[in-house]
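User: I've been trying to design a sequence by hand for this structure and keep getting stuck. Would you show me what you'd pick, starting by listing the structure so we're on the same page?

Assistant: Good idea, let's start from the same input. This is the structure you sent:
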């Protein structure tokens, strides 16, 4: 999530360092990662399906400053079956409400 909204030069530095595999589902192909980052920016949230830790999924939503700079993100981590379908939609709704409240209180 944070990398998707980071400055381009930071993204390039991270990618240039090499992409480490944590699970069989980790994105380690530069092209696939760039595509995923574009998808995250377009849809406004990131989903991890056992890409970092086996047996866990997560969904994250960015927190923006008043001038639309990403300053942080919040996420929910759960077993994959608990972040599917309507449950995912509910979690996203709650996360988006929370990020909106946090952003309103940011300096």
């Amino acid at each position: 999530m944070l990398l998707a909204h980071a400055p381009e030069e930071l993204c390039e530095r991270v990618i240039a360092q090499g992409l480490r595999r944590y699970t069989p589902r980790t994105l380690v192909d530069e092209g696939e990662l760039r595509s995923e980052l574009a998808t995250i920016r377009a849809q406004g949230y990131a989903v991890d399906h056992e890409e970092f830790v086996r047996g866990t999924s997560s969904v994250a939503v960015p927190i923006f400053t008043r001038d639309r700079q990403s300053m942080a993100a919040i996420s929910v981590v759960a077993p994959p079956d608990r972040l599917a379908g309507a449950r995912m939609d509910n979690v996203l709704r709650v996360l988006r409400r929370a990020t909106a409240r946090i952003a309103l209180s940011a300096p």
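That's my pick for every position. To get oriented when you compare it with your attempt: The mean pLDDT is 93. The radius of gyration is 14 Å.
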